[in-house]
Automatic annotation (TrEMBL):
This is Ionotropic glutamate receptor L-glutamate and glycine-binding domain-containing protein. It is found in: Membrane. It comes from the Eukaryota. It holds the Pfam family Lig_chan-Glu_bd. Residues 213-275 form the Ionotropic glutamate receptor L-glutamate and glycine-binding domain. Residues 1-19 form the signal peptide. It is a multi-pass membrane protein. GO terms for molecular function: ligand-gated monoatomic ion channel activity. One of its GO terms (cellular component) is membrane. Keywords: Glycoprotein, Ion channel, Ion transport, Ligand-gated ion channel, Membrane, Receptor, Signal, Transmembrane, Transmembrane helix, Transport.
Length: 287
């Protein structure tokens, strides 16, 4: 089994050159799908470039846990998008940049992507990833097929204005299967790179007991405040653990927020969230 796999890889290399057409082993895909509690796999490939080595994947496709989609055919690839509980696999980042930019930039859910980067330099991978519209909770994984292992990475952005994070998370081998060093995603992504959040709060003891204007002589005017209280304590700890900063403001109307008469916009902190004036609102509704 193992020999057969490596022979087929060598065969692919000879036939098509490194990178662009290497098929990941079915067992690797299965293990990845199981680890992330997904249902199946959609394999996007330029079908015209494949012959015999795609046969096992085609066979698997009959079981309905795998779908093979021809990337050469734009209509077909659009139709097949997408069941968010499937793993979407693309064999080669370098030759699929516009396809991926389109798919990742337009996703409304966190689709799971597994993208081949075999044979590519890390600076090149990073410069391509920088151009993608990625966010903090994206599920974008990359794999590099090496001699005896497949190295697994993840990619995301802390913020649209930041460069892509590309970090190694583990590996897969035929004997050890999937080994992820730290499988808690929010521990892996805990460093928010000093990003500054805008936060609005309202006085609500004991959770938020004080909003102290940072510039005392501006007391009372909307602006930046320091916080105190139980929520503030948690938040100040998170700030240290997760490497972010924040500025606190308050809603001009001092309200939590309600739907305005137009039925669409909101007042208060909810309205500030809606208008993207703040990243978070913090308050407790005392009923
Ligand atoms: C990546 O693609 C570019 C052209 O799109 C090509 O010049 C380059 O050789 C490719 N690099 C790799 C590592 O495949
Ligand atoms: C916080 O983020 C900044 C900016 O990316 C970085 O320079 C710094 O090393 C980070 N600090 C910690 C403790 O991770
Ligand atoms: C505080 O506000 C006053 C009046 O607006 C201003 O003159 C002063 O420079 C401010 N101080 C700081 C430290 O921002």
């Amino acid at each position: 089994m193992r020999t057969a796999f490596w022979i087929s890889i060598l065969w692919s290399l000879g036939q098509w050159g490194l990178g662009s057409t290497m098929l990941p082993p079915l067992k690797f895909l299965d293990d990845f799908v199981q680890e992330h509690s997904l249902l199946g796999t959609v394999l996007y490939i330029p079908l015209s470039k494949f012959s015999n080595d795609i046969i096992p994947y085609r066979k698997q496709a009959r079981t309905k846990v795998m779908k093979v989609v021809d990337m050469d055919n734009p209509k077909i690839r659009k139709q097949n998008r997408q069941n968010i509980v499937d793993l979407q696999v693309v064999l080669d980042l370098n030759s699929s940049v516009s396809f991926l930019a389109d798919m990742i930039g337009s996703q409304t859910n966190n689709d799971y992507w597994l993208i081949g980067v075999t044979g590519m330099n890390i600076p090149v991978i990073k410069s391509i990833l920088d151009t993608f519209a990625m966010v903090l909770d994206d599920q974008i994984y990359l794999y590099d097929i090496q001699d005896t292992r497949i190295i697994l990475y993840e990619a995301y952005k802390v913020h649209a204005t930041k460069k892509a994070r590309f970090q190694r998370i583990g590996y897969w081998s035929t004997s050890e299967r999937l080994q992820i060093q730290n499988d808690e995603i929010w521990q892996r992504r805990a460093d928010l790179e000093g990003i500054e959040f805008k936060i609005a709060t309202l006085y609500s003891p004991p959770y938020l007991t004080a909003k102290i204007p940072i510039n005392q002589s501006d007391s009372g005017a909307p602006g930046s405040y320091a916080m105190a209280g139980m929520f503030a304590d948690v938040f100040l700890n998170l700030k240290e653990i997760m490497n972010f900063t924040f500025v606190v403001t308050k809603p001009e109307d001092e309200q939590w927020g309600a739907v305005n008469s137009d039925g669409i916009t909101w007042s208060g902190m909810v309205g500030m969230l809606q208008n993207k004036e703040i990243d978070m609102g913090m308050n407790v509704n005392k009923n």
